[in-house]
Amino acid sequence: MKNSEIIELSQEDLTARLKEEKAALNKLKFAHAVSAIENPNAIKAARRNIARIATEVSKRKNVAKSETASEA
């Protein structure tokens, strides 16, 4: 998932997508622990997607905090 696609998502979609990506990562890790998966770089890609989504979520939270602080 590209950053441009992540930015276009709503806050609710981001949190849902983050939950889905974390579940997928756990499944990949489990599958890799049981038997070697075909492409171990998929774990790396999943971690990076989670980081990208989490970064966007935290950016939006910080922007919301600064907007409410400036209004008060």
Could you explain how this protein is built, in words?
InterPro entries: Ribosomal_uL29, Ribosomal_uL29_CS, Ribosomal_uL29_sf. The chain is an all-alpha fold and 72 residues long. The chain has one domain. 85% of the residues lie in helices and 0% in strands. It is elongated and about 55 Å long.
Shape: elongated
- What amount of the residues lies in strands? under 5%
Largest sheet: none
Total beta-strand segments: 0
How many domains? The number is 1
H-E string: HHH
How many H/I helical runs?
Answer: 3
Please tell me how large the radius of gyration is: 16 Å
Specify the structural class.
mainly alpha
Query: Level of helix content?
Result: over 70%
How far apart, in Å, are the first and last alpha carbons? Answer: 37 Å
Give the uncertain stretches in residue-range form.
none
Mean pLDDT, rounded to whole units? 93
Brief digest:
InterPro entries: Ribosomal_uL29, Ribosomal_uL29_CS, Ribosomal_uL29_sf. The protein is an all-alpha fold and 72 residues long.
What is the topology?
Layout: H1 3-8, H2 11-34, H3 41-71
Helix pairs in contact: 2-3
Notable characteristics:
72 residues, mainly alpha, elongated, Ribosomal_uL29
